[in-house]
């Protein structure tokens, strides 16, 4: 079993804190802000790929480890 986050077709990347969320049109077009800092998301191809890389190298959080 892999501890890495589930991959989707695309991601959005917060332009302020680099938080990653799955792609939605609302997030990409600025109608939904980052839940961590309130910043704007970008879902262009470059940001989506950067977000995908960030998730691949992300260490599991304490919450994920406690659930195992």
Oligomer: single chain
Can you tell me the number of structural domains?
A: 1
Estimated radius of gyration: 12 Å
**End-to-end C-alpha gap:** 10 Å
Per DSSP, the total helix count is: 3
Q: Give the proportion of residues in helices.
A: 25-40%
Major sheet, described briefly? 3 strands, antiparallel
Chain-averaged pLDDT: 81
Could you tell me the number of beta strands? 3
Order of helices and strands: EEHEHH
Strand content: 5-15%
Description:
By secondary structure, the chain is α+β, with helices and mostly antiparallel strands. The protein has one domain (11-58). Helix content is 31%, strand content 13%. A 3-stranded antiparallel β-sheet has the order 2-1-3, covered by helices on one side.
SSE map:
Blueprint: E1 11-14, E2 20-22, H1 25-28, E3 41-42, H2 45-56, H3 62-66
Antiparallel strand pairs: 1-2, 1-3
List the defining traits of the structure above.
3-stranded antiparallel β-sheet, 13% strand, disordered N terminus, alpha+beta, 68 residues, single chain, 3 strands
Summarize the structure.
This protein has 68 residues and is α+β, with helices and mostly antiparallel strands.
């Amino acid at each position: 079993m892999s501890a890495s986050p589930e991959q989707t077709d695309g991601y959005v990347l917060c332009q302020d804190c680099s938080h990653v969320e799955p792609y939605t049109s609302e997030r990409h077009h600025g109608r939904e802000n980052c839940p961590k800092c309130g910043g704007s998301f970008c879902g262009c191809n470059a940001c989506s790929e950067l977000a995908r890389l960030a998730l691949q190298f992300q260490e599991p959080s304490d919450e994920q480890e406690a659930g195992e």
